[in-house]
Write a structure and sequence with these properties.
4-stranded mixed sheet, alpha+beta, Glyoxalase, single chain, 24% helix, MMCE/EMCE_epimerase, 6 strands, two-stranded antiparallel ribbon, 131 residues, 2,3-Dihydroxybiphenyl 1,2-Dioxygenase, domain 1
Length: 131
């Protein structure tokens, strides 16, 4: 077994609408903003999202998950999943903040309740709540 030197997984999102994306993820999804060294020009925010994992799937598996969460193939090469305490309430809140709901909350074969959204900066989000 390999020894890992990795200390943190950081997903970096580039967006033209920085303020909207920051508000969506910080103020409405509830990610805590942590210290960041400001650049000479432009803006940056680092939001803490709890424990990070990297999930790697084959295209057939991505299709299977898409079919469960949305009913058809919709995801691209990356999708971000957040474990939340209440999928239904979080889905409604994020939709009110401009996210497009692709798949309403539903019980999955993975023993979780999942929903799928298209969020600011073009990211697809899976919200999940363990049963």
């Amino acid at each position: 077994m390999a020894i890992s030197n990795v200390k943190e997984l950081r997903l970096v999102i580039t967006t033209e609408d920085f303020d909207n994306a920051l508000s969506f993820y910080r103020d409405h999804l509830g990610l805590a903003e942590i210290a960041a060294v400001p650049p000479e020009n432009g803006k940056i925010a680092i939001l803490e999202a709890g424990k990070a994992t990297l999930e790697i799937v084959e295209p057939a598996t991505a299709s299977y998950i898409d079919n469960i969460e949305v009913g058809r193939r919709v995801s691209g090469w990356v999708r971000v999943a957040f474990e939340v305490t209440d999928v239904a309430a979080t889905t409604v809140n994020l939709e009110q903040q401009g996210a497009q709901v692709l798949g309403e909350p539903r019980l999955t074969p993975f023993n979780s309740i999942n929903s799928r959204l298209e969020a600011p900066a073009g990211l697809q989000l899976t919200l999940f709540q363990r049963c």
